[in-house]
Write a structure and sequence with these properties.
- This protein has helices spanning about 30-35, 65-75, 80-85, 95-100, 120-130, 185-195, 215-220, 225-230, 230-235, 260-265, 300-310, 325-335, 350-355, 375-390, 400-410, 415-420, 440-455, 490-505, 525-530, 530-545; strands at about 80, 110-115, 135-140, 160, 170-175, 180, 200, 235-245, 245-250, 275-280, 285, 290-295, 320-325, 365-375, 395-400, 425-435, 460-470, 475-485.
- Helix 17 packs antiparallel against helix 18.
- The chain has about 550 residues and is of the alpha+beta class.
- The radius of gyration is 23 Å and the shape is globular.
- It has 20 helices and 18 strands.
- The structure holds flavin-adenine dinucleotide (FAD).
- InterPro entries: Alkyl-DHAP_Synthase (IPR025650), FAD-bd_oxidored_4_C (IPR004113), FAD-bd_PCMH (IPR016166), FAD-bd_PCMH-like_sf (IPR036318), FAD-bd_PCMH_sub1 (IPR016167), FAD-bd_PCMH_sub2 (IPR016169), FAD-linked_Oxase-like_C (IPR016164), Oxid_FAD_bind_N (IPR006094).
- Belongs to the FAD-binding oxidoreductase/transferase type 4 family.
């Protein structure tokens, strides 16, 4: 089996041997006890799941079909191995992790294939379509919208087409700042190849370490520095997509008026329109300066108003982010000893500073704002932002906390597995709304979540931040947690559904950057109207009449 393609743990996030621990975070355990009533001191931690306990549905791939795939990609690059099929069954959503730990694998891909190049992808697709098989493209497997799983009712052979061997930067057009990149390149691999030539893509989602360029395009991903570099929808200019019999080619253009945008149709298509093999992305020279500064605001409303004012101003920071009071409390309470926050923790200077300003420790909000570019540019941007922050009653606290945030951001995802080990859920829902609606959405989601917690009968936690600012609005990102009672997935559905419904009821979208998959498809009509769904259905059915490409995702039957 291909050993050059690295996969995450079969049962959780990230690399084997890496996990969350809180020994160096003295405030973490008391915080968790207060937030969700879980005493980490007395709770029993579940042991690591054993693959021997997992029942994997038998592969339905015929010997003849596996032989045919083997003839295309070579014996080392096609497998019906149980572990590999399980790795390709789900993404890393909470529902996925609960099901995988609970031995709930009702359907797995029957065969996993790792083509080496676009020609092999074409031959695999054509062979699969010829035998009426289903093809599910696989990037890093990091999605959290239920975008990968084959449905239990699927009776046809399911092929997981893993792009992991297509990971080269093929060419850089330095005059235009465009790089041709193979779709299976994971974040670190891509960035290393670009950095070696002095370039960066500027796309850094929290899942950067384990997600791919093709996956980013297929889910309409957004990275941390989107205020400067744009979402992947802005960054991805050209595309090559393997479809039955031929390749759909979209040349990289700065803009075009050649009818409805086929490029936009591929963006967010979650594998339903074909297999993306190559993406031409905008790249930038590595900036001379890259800083993230921390600020405090007395209240959420003051902070949001400041973010809006920044988005309307001449300032162009790379990151605008503000945590609400609860997320701020979480960040302060769970920082490492002697971290960049130490001088601001409750025991030391923070209460004094806050009371001298007449601020309430329970309402303060922590903000991170990033600056990137030439030294003079970064300095000028900061000056413009500092003036806006001051006008909105905020105060800067320097670069230390920002450095820490930047270094630790890729570690946080491991926390979810730790909470699951302890019998608790920790998950996220994110949205975007116009500036005029953001506070309404924020409050409505809190209310909906607390109602859902009351229904389940638990003390639940919810916190939020605003990030990714645009001219007309921003993304709101909610993190919620509670201790499971008797029926984890039903309880999860109660909370998650309440939050999603609050989004659409308050003029916000069902997802700003995680996609639709199966997790959010129930709200699609409310998001884009029944006519919108009709148009989308017509696109999928017209472009894939045999339903060979990842059927029942985004628009579900
Ligand atoms: C801890 C955590 C943090 C996250 N943070 C962020 C974040 O900050 N920003 C963000 O945008 N997302 C985030 N995500 C979500 C996820 O990482 C993104 O959806 C990501 O873009 C998925 O990429 P992938 O390569 O892992 O795709 P996969 O999970 O493998 O696939 C996702 C979907 O895309 C399709 N697909 C994948 N590759 C191709 C291809 N080459 N051609 C056609 N279809 C393809 C698949 O069939 C599937 O439908 C996070 C997820 C987790 C678990």
């Amino acid at each position: 089996m291909t050993d050059t393609v690295k996969h995450m743990k079969w049962w959780g996030w990230g690399n084997e041997g890496v996990g969350f621990h809180h020994e160096d975070k003295p405030g973490f355990a008391p915080f968790v006890e207060k937030a969700v009533g879980l005493d980490l001191g007395s709770a029993t931690r579940a042991s690591e799941p054993s693959f021997e306990d997992v029942d994997v549905p038998a592969s339905r791939a015929s010997e003849g079909f596996v032989r045919e795939l083997t003839a295309i990609v070579g014996g080392e690059h096609v497998t019906t191995d149980d572990m590999v099929r399980v790795i390709h069954t789900y993404g890393k959503g909470l529902r996925d992790l609960v099901r995988i730990r609970g031995n709930q694998i009702l359907r797995s891909p029957d065969v996993v294939v790792y083509p080496a190049d676009e020609a092999q992808v074409q031959r695999v697709v054509d062979a699969a379509v010829a035998v009426d098989a289903v093809i599910i493209p696989f990037g890093g497997g990091s999605n959290i919208a239920g975008s990968l799983e084959p449905l239990p009712a699927e009776t046809r052979t399911v092929v997981s087409l893993d792009l992991g061997r297509l990971r080269e930067v093929v060419d850089i057009d330095a005059d235009s700042g465009l790089a041709r990149v193979q779709a299976g390149a994971q974040g670190p691999d891509l960035e290393a190849q670009l950095n070696a030539k002095g370039w960066t893509i500027g796309h850094f989602p929290d899942s950067f370490t384990h997600s791919t360029v093709g996956g980013w395009v297929a889910t309409r991903s957004t990275g941390m520095q989107s205020d400067k570099y744009g979402d992947i929808a802005d960054i991805a200019r050209g595309l090559r997509v393997v479809r039955p019999g031929d390749v759909l080619v979209l040349r990289p253009l700065p803009s075009t008026s050649s009818g409805p945008s086929v490029r936009e149709m591929i963006l967010g298509s979650e594998g339903r329109l074909g297999v993306i093999t190559e993406v031409t992305v905008q790249v930038h020279r590595i900036p001379e300066k890259r800083n993230i500064y921390a600020y405090f605001f007395p209240t959420w409303e003051a902070g949001v108003a400041a973010m809006q004012a920044i988005s309307e101003s001449d300032a162009s920071p790379s990151i605008t982010r503000i945590s609400d009071a609860r997320e701020t409390a979480f960040t302060l309470a769970t920082s490492k000893k002697r971290s960049g926050f130490s001088k601001f923790t409750a025991e030391t200077a923070l209460p004094k500073i806050m009371s001298s300003k007449g601020w309430d420790l329970d309402t303060i909000c922590l903000s991170f704002i990033g600056y990137e570019g030439g030294v003079a540019h970064a300095k000028h941007q900061k000056k413009l932002v500092d003036a806006i922050v001051k006008k909105h009653g905020g105060m800067g606290v320097g670069e230390g906390p920002g450095l820490l945030y930047d270094q630790k951001k890729f570690d946080t995802p491991y926390l979810r597995d730790f909470l699951l080990d302890m019998g608790a859920a920790g998950d996220v829902s994110e949205t975007a709304a116009p500036w005029s609606r953001l506070n309404q959405v924020h409050d409505a989601v809190y209310e909906a979540a607390h109602k859902a917690y009351a229904e389940i009968g638990v003390t639940g936690w919810i916190m939020s931040h605003l990030s990714h600012s645009y001219h007309s609005g921003a993304c709101l990102y909610f993190t919620f947690a509670f201790v499971f009672q008797d029926d984890p997935l039903t309880e999860y559905d109660t909370v998650k559904s309440a939050i999603q419904q609050a989004f659409v009821d308050n003029h916000a979208t069902i997802s700003h950057h995680h996609g639709v998959g199966r997790e959010h498809s129930a709200w699609l009509e409310q998001d884009i109207s029944p006519e919108g769904v009709k148009v989308m259905t017509a696109l999928f059915e017209g472009a894939d009449p045999g339903a060979h490409f990842n059927p029942n995702k985004v628009v579900a039957d």
